[in-house]
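## retry 2 of 3
previous attempt timed out at serialization; input unchanged, resubmitting
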Amino acid sequence: MPFSSVSRDAAQVASSFKHFVGLRGSELKIVKSDAAGEILKAVVEQGWLSEASVPSCFPHNSQLEREIRSFQEVARSLFLQAGSAARPQLWPQACSYVATIMSAKLVDASGITRWKKGFGDEFLGPVYLQGQLAFVRTKQPGKFKLNPNAERAIFVGWRLGFSLRYKGVSYFVLYSHPKEDLSLIPVSQFQNAEVYTPKEMTFPLHLAAEKALHDLEDPRRAELLDIDSLPIPYSVCW
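## retry succeeded, writing output
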């Protein structure tokens, strides 16, 4: 089951191990790896057993290598569709999205997903596309009571707790945030009941990047195209 780590730092790899196994980490584990130093160190820190291959020597795990390449190809394609040229900082979220969707939706020869094999049940989270436009409920002090409180947002993934448990919370980038800072984009969390997705699918970052390239401008500094908020109160929309 794919699981992404945001860096090759040993401490980050160890944190990813803990997040992936959750309470199951109390049992002794045997970890097979390609002998990368950060993985070996993280395995030792967990008190697990390392079964690493000999560096730069055959045999390699050809199936795993092919799977990693497939993961990268899917991640690149979906991230391009989502608007990678406009906000490349969202690459970690793209990897996490692809890791989840490949486990939850791709089936093996027996017709069973890895998610079900690993957790006993299918993934029950909403299946949105990365970069898709949505509207989320936000609280704004002093707003007129009958004004729409559905703010524009961009879907970037699902929140998965320890042992990859999904409890109905997803990650979004509020529509206003990508304009504010090119180095950091805050990611917000919302319950499924607070999210509305239009029937017509739109990818705001992709549209902004396309316009910037057409105008020979830097896509990373592109302004998101103006999309109206929902013109009706929250209680009517949901």
